[in-house]
Design a protein that fits this description.
alpha+beta, binds adenosine monophosphate, 15 helices, 8-stranded mixed β-sheet, 416 residues, Rossmann fold, BirA Bifunctional Protein, domain 2, 5-stranded mixed β-sheet, single chain
Length: 416
């Protein structure tokens, strides 16, 4: 048989046991943090009309130009698998009317980008993100950054750093573009091909080019705050001051821009030492997006969950290793005991005790092997004698100790 049948699409993976249990634990912890901070979940479709992304993310951005999975549906409409979560959440909030003006929402789920797969970079990956809607307010930005750091704390992460910068207000954009163009023009010939294109289309992206030769050139550019108005600089100072009050130390990185057009004021990125070359664990920022006749303002972030898992495996091995113990494995000697065990298994499961059993006739040895494989802590063994006596042999798989226990006491013993 063609072995490709067994492979998922390149850059995409199945998530299953045993790793899936760590995913579930991270999500569970995150949902509790979200509840405490007053955010509720939104689940939007994975497919959207393409124009939602081209309009909100900006059509000169890398995501829109190079990375979207876009295709025509049977009716000829252009659809795109979501490359990020914010645009869909804004579309959702647009439908809520005035109620959406101060919505606080979070999402967890897959995103799709047709990038070159490599370590830490997938074509289907997962993000956990939040969006807090409302007019620009440094307190809102500081609160959302604090929430993000609280999540990392809840996951036991320690090896991360926070870089922060401002994109300024839309009114600053012309002056920033002009200032950067003046600084870059003398070096145009020495910039990489991508940056020469960016010089015309999206000059801010010169600042975060990954090429060493470009980085050396932009290191000497003046910080963009120099071209911004007083209001934008004060906004950044206020965010930093409020973060300080919340005990958060942010490093201002004047080269940090983040890729998308919709950002205004605060942008930030979290890096983690466990991640190698793709060391961005999460990004965030304040945005302003016009959809229809309304402008949506908010602040949010997205955490890459594949990378969060890698970071937890390094920083918090105890959490990464903890696999929940299955309670009991029921072993039957004979058909009658097997049917009786089917009833007992249901009774245990309804009482909150995880358990398993072989559903077909198997030897005692085969059943014990299955018990060991299952990770169960206890084995409950019953044959004709036990059924007649109303007991079961209870064996502790860790130390091998075994004793007869009255049926009525079993539940309590298994829960102990
Ligand atoms: P972005 O909005 O592009 O900054 O993405 C936010 C976070 O999602 C990043 O910091 C990464 O942790 C994660 N991420 C983005 N693209 C990928 C990818 N192709 N594969 C895995 N994780 C990704």
């Amino acid at each position: 048989m063609d072995s490709a049948v067994f492979q998922p699409i390149q850059g995409m993976s199945d998530l299953a046991a045993p790793e899936i249990s760590l995913w579930q634990r991270l999500e569970h912890a995150a949902r509790e943090v979200m509840r405490l901070w007053g955010f509720t979940e939104v689940r939007t479709p994975l497919l959207e009309y393409t124009h939602l992304f081209t309009r909100s993310l900006g059509d000169t951005t890398d995501v829109v130009q190079k990375e979207m999975y876009t295709f025509a549906d049977r009716g000829g409409r252009s659809l795109t698998l979501r490359p990020e979560g914010t645009a869909s959440v804004i579309r959702h909030v647009a439908g809520l009317g005035a109620e959406g003006d101060d919505a606080r929402l979070y999402y967890v789920g897959p995103m799709f980008r047709s990038e070159r797969p490599q370590a830490g970079r997938k074509r289907q990956f997962h993000q956990l993100g939040v969006e807090a809607f409302g007019a620009p307010n440094p307190a809102a930005d500081a609160e959302v950054i604090a929430l993000q750091l609280r999540l990392f704390e809840a996951w036991g992460l320690s090896g991360h750093t926070l870089d922060l910068n401002t994109r300024g207000m839309p009114e600053d954009r012309a002056a920033v573009t002009q200032g950067l163009a003046d600084a870059a023009r003398p070096h145009l010939g020495a910039l990489c091909e991508d940056c020469q294109r960016r010089f015309e289309t999206n000059i801010l992206r010169l600042l975060d080019c990954k090429k060493e030769s470009c980085q050396q050139i932009v290191a000497n550019f003046p910080p963009t705050t120099q071209f911004m108005g007083e209001a934008s600089r004060k906004y950044l100072d206020d965010v930093l001051r409020l973060l300080g009050k919340l005990g958060i130390n942010a490093k201002v990185n004047p080269r940090l821009v983040r890729g998308l057009d919709y950002y205004v004021h605060t942008v930030w990125e979290i890096r983690h030492g466990a991640l190698g070359a793709q060391d961005a664990l999460a990004g965030g920022g304040r945005y302003q997006v016009a959809l229809g006749d309304k402008t949506f303002q908010g602040v949010g972030f997205a955490i890459g969950l594949e990378r969060a898992i890698m970071a937890v495996q390094q920083d918090n091995p105890a959490l990464a290793a903890a696999a929940p113990q299955t309670g009991a494995w029921l072993v039957a000697l004979g058909d009658i005991a097997r049917e009786a065990n089917l009833q007992l298994a249901k009774q245990f499961r309804c009482a909150g005790i995880a358990c398993g059993m072989e559903l077909g006739a198997r030897s005692m040895k085969a059943q014990m092997r299955a018990a060991n494989r299952s990770g169960a802590k206890w084995v409950v063994i019953r044959g004709d004698n036990e059924l007649a006596a109303g007991t079961a042999a209870l064996k502790n798989l860790a130390d091998g100790a075994q004793q007869d226990v009255p049926l009525a006491d079993l539940e309590a013993r298994l829960k102990s």
